[in-house]
Write a structure and sequence with these properties.
Layout (H helix, E strand, L loop, with lengths): L5 H4 L18 H9 L4 E3 L6 E5 L3 H11 L8 E3 L3 H7 L4 H4 L9 E6 L16 E5 L4 H10 L3 E2 L14 H7 L19 E6 L2 E6 L5 H8 L3 E3 L21 E3 L9 E5 L7 H4 L3 E3 L6 H16 L5 E4 L8 H12 L16
C-alpha cells in the first residue's frame, strides 16, 4: 500500500478525493477476519495504536514493513494474549520471570528467540532475540485470543513519524487505506518500556510508559542503560524517530515568531498562545498527563502549519525520561530510511 506524504495525511477529510478502501472503523469480527487473511489491521493498545499482523505469517509481516515503509533491520514487537503464549516464543530466564508480574502492561521484554517459536524471521530482523509484550489493553488481548496467534505490531504510523494515539490519527496518516478496529484514545500516550534480559543483565533499550526507577523499586532489580553505538535490538532505537513534519526546538522558554509552542507547567501568556498556536502538556506539571498528551499535541501543532515547534523544558525524572527521549529523537537530524543502517547510535 502506498503511504501518502504527511501533508496529504493532515488534510481535512473534506479535501480528500480518494474514497476509503474500508468502512472504517471495522468491527471486532471483521478485524479478526482481516488478520486471519494475512492482512494488516490497526488496533488500540494502552500505549499507542498498533499496526497488527499475524506474527506467524511472513506475508502478513511483510505487509507491516511495506505499509509503514519501515526498514527491515528494525525488529517488531510480538504481542501475546497471555504468558503461556509468550513462553512459546521466547526463552525466559529466572531473571526475566521476575519481571513478568508487570504484565499485562506497557513493558516489552527482549529475550532469546526459541528455535521452534513459529514466528516469521522478519519479526526479529534476523536477530537471535525477540521482543514480546502482553498488552494491558483488554480489547487488544481479546483480539489476539480470537486470532489464536501472536500479533506483530509496531505503532500504526508511517515509519519515523509521530505515533498515533487515536483511531482518527491512524486513518489520517494512512489516508484511510488501513482498516482500523475502533477503540478509545490510548490511555498512556507513549510506547512501552523495552528491557533486554540477556546474560543475566537487564538493560533498558527504550524508556517508556513504565519508568525505570519504578520497575527497580517495585521488583528490586537493577536496570542498566543502553550504551551509545549499540546495534538496533528493538524498536525506537533509531536516532531520528517519532518526528512531526515541523522541526523541533527543545528547552525553549518561549516561542519565537512563526513557531508553535508546546509547554509544560505554567507557561504564562504570550502572542503565540493568543493565536492558538500553543498546547500545554500539563498545566499542573503532571508527567503522566504530559505523556498522555505528547503525541496528540505534537500532531495538532504540526497540523497548524508552523515551520517549527518550540518545546518547553521537561523534567527528566520518572516518565520524563521517556518524554525527553521521544522529543530528542523527534528533534534529531532526519535521514532518509535508505541512508540508515544497523548500528545507529541509540539515546
Amino acid at each position: 500500500m502506498a503511504v501518502l506524504a504527511c501533508q496529504t495525511a493532515l488534510m481535512p477529510a473534506s479535501q480528500k478525493t480518494k474514497q476509503s478502501q474500508f468502512h472504517n472503523p471495522v468491527s471486532f469480527e471483521k478485524a479478526v477476519r482481516i488478520l486471519r487473511a494475512g492482512k494488516v489491521c490497526a488496533f488500540a493498545t494502552e500505549t499507542v495504536y498498533g499496526l497488527g499482523a499475524d506474527a506467524t505469517n511472513c506475508d502478513a509481516v511483510l505487509a507491516i514493513y511495506a505499509t509503514k515503509q519501515r526498514p527491515r533491520f528494525n525488529p517488531l514487537i510480538v504481542h501475546c494474549a497471555d504468558l503461556e503464549m509468550a513462553h512459546k516464543i521466547a526463552l525466559f530466564s529466572p531473571l526475566a520471570e521476575k519481571l513478568t508480574p508487570l504484565w499485562p502492561g506497557a513493558m516489552t521484554l527482549v529475550l532469546p528467540l526459541k528455535p521452534d517459536a513459529g514466528v516469521c524471521d522478519l519479526v526479529s530482523a534476523g536477530l537471535k532475540t525477540v521482543g514480546v509484550r502482553i498488552p494491558g489493553h483488554e480489547q487488544a488481548r481479546e483480539l489476539i485470543k480470537a486470532l489464536g496467534r501472536p500479533l506483530a505490531a509496531p505503532s500504526a504510523n508511517p515509519s519515523g513519524q509521530l505515533s498515533p494515539t487515536s483511531s482518527a490519527q491512524v486513518r489520517q496518516m494512512f489516508d484511510d487505506k488501513v482498516p482500523v478496529l475502533e477503540g478509545e484514545p490510548s490511555s498512556a500516550g507513549i510506547e512501552s518500556t523495552i528491557l533486554s534480559v540477556i546474560d543475566n543483565r537487564i538493560v533498558q533499550l527504550r524508556p517508556g510508559t513504565l519508568p525505570r526507577e519504578e520497575i527497580e523499586q517495585k521488583l528490586r532489580v537493577k536496570i542498566e542503560l543502553v550504551t551509545k553505538n549499540s546495534k538496533i535490538a528493538a524498536p525506537g532505537m533509531l536516532a531520528s524517530h517519532y518526528a512531526p513534519r515541523a522541526q523541533l526546538r527543545l528547552e525553549a522558554k518561549a516561542p519565537e515568531p512563526g513557531e508553535a509552542f508546546l509547554g509544560f507547567g505554567d507557561i504564562g501568556a504570550n502572542e503565540t498562545i493568543a493565536k492558538n498556536l500553543a498546547k500545554n502538556l500539563s498545566t499542573a506539571g503532571d508527567l503522566e498527563e504530559a505523556a498522555r498528551n505528547l503525541f496528540s499535541f505534537l500532531y495538532q501543532l504540526d497540523a497548524s502549519g508552523a515551520w517549527r515547534i518550540a518545546v518547553a523544558p521537561i523534567p527528566s525524572a520518572g516518565l520524563g525520561e521517556a518524554i525527553n527521549d521521544r522529543l530528542t529523537r523527534a528533534a534529531a537530524p532526519r535521514k532518509k530510511i535508505k541512508d540508515q543502517a544497523p548500528g545507529i547510535t541509540g539515546a
